[in-house]
Amino acid sequence: MLLLQWVWTETGKEAVAPYLIYYALRLLMFILSFVLEDWAIHELVHSPRERRIAVVLVASSYVTWTYQTHTFSNAVETLVVLWSVVMTQRILDNKHRSSLLSSALLGSLVAFGIFNRITIPAFLFPSAFYLLPHFRRKPFSLLALCVTFLLTSILAVAVDTYSYHPSADSLFNILRTDPIITPLNSLLYNTSSSNLSIHGLHPPYQHLIASLPLLLGPALILLTVTRKLSLSIFSALSATILLSLIPHQEPRFLLPAVPLILSSIRLPQSRVLRRYWFASWIIFNVALGILMGILHQGGVVPAQIWLGQQHQHDLASTKVFWWKTYSPPVWLLGGTDIVTVDLMGMEVEEMLDRVSGAMGDATREEPRSVGLVAPRSSVELDAWMEKNRSGMVFEQLWKTDSHLNLDDLDFEREGIWGTLGRVVGRRGLVIWKVSPKS
């Protein structure tokens, strides 16, 4: 980012445009995934022939060139899990030495991974099981792991605490009285059923029947003919089972399992079957790449970038409500005065009450207008606009058709064709200016 700032200032402009930072971060994640993920695959797969196949499968997976090129915590978790498994494998292969360096690196990786996402122990449970005999024989390895784990955790707490208290006179005093311990806060939030219900509750078999098929496609069939039950396979299966115990389940929670599985499967021996399998693999990844990489929630970033340029469009609103979308990245607004309110998937009546409350009423000398960002597929909003029951005036300011809200599927109530007709036929994201009716 410092290099980007230096280059940008050379053009005579003071601040880097938020959209440039966004694409720079995407490029950075692509490079990190390209280098670190491939390197990890080379470490985990020893046979040159099988290694080439594994690298091709991982690189051609839509998960790699969509999710892994985003700054998702799950994308970072994938790299941490892969290299934690690599460090574990290095320790296990070096039976006659303590492997202090690998143990120390593993401790730092695990601590960093936990502060990034608390789900990482689900992937590393088999690694811990495999390492127990080694730590009994080589206690200094365990000591090195614990020391670096502790030091990295202290550093992470200090960084998080400073981020939330940048104006504190003494960081040491804040650490003693009000430290920010991210994994603890995340654990407390995610163990509350009321919090999880906001994001959606799922049956325990959701990962098995939906998440894994969505991430792996035809590769899931080849799990039955893996080369061997390696540490990579055990790590992927462990996470799938343990994370299935959590009521809220999303496919991205299993992103680290994708390279672990793809680096362990074996292709069909028959040339004909292999040709058909590769054809299905290509079709699957192209289709899912377009669907998940371009269309699904694809309007969120363009909408936020447009709002960040709102001073060019003379918008009166300083508060913008987002409804039935992913949480918008607020830093894309740059230095604007817009306040972002994420309403997630709340009921339409409650959403309109929140919007109405922010506007006040038309009897004021200068009625306050607010913004509302919502997918076109949310037909509940149409009734309020047509019948004007809400006492609000909706003015469309911006729209994109490159947006699908796949989180709003309702096959049970609308049926397959009704749901697809609404979600696909009415695809798009709209920014409305909402004002009190005079």
What does this structure look like?
- The protein has 438 residues and is α/β, with parallel strands linked by helices.
- Helix content is 58%, strand content 7%.
- The chain is built from 19 helices and 5 strands.
- The protein has a 5-stranded mixed β-sheet.
- Helix 2 packs parallel to helix 5 and helix 5 runs parallel beside helix 7.
- The longest helix is centred in the first third of the chain and has 27 residues.
- The chain is globular.
- The model has no long low-confidence stretch (mean pLDDT 86).
List keywords for this structure.
438 residues, alpha/beta, 5 strands, 58% helix, globular
Compact summary:
This protein has helices at about 1-10, 20-45, 50-60, 60-65, 75-95, 100-115, 120-135, 140-165, 170-175, 180-190, 195-200, 205-215, 230-245, 255-260, 270-295, 300-310, 350-360, 380-385, 410-425; strands at about 320, 340, 370-375, 390-400, 430-435. It is α/β, with parallel strands linked by helices and about 450 residues long. The chain has a five-stranded mixed sheet with strand order 2-1-3-5-4.
Oligomeric status: single chain
Please state the CA-atom Rg, rounded to the nearest Å: 25 Å
- What characterizes the major β-sheet? 5 strands, mixed
Percent strand equals 5-15%
**Residue share in helices?**
55-70%
Strand order of the largest sheet: 2-1-3-5-4
Mean pLDDT: 86
Shape: globular
- Poorly predicted residue ranges: none
**Backbone structural class:** alpha/beta
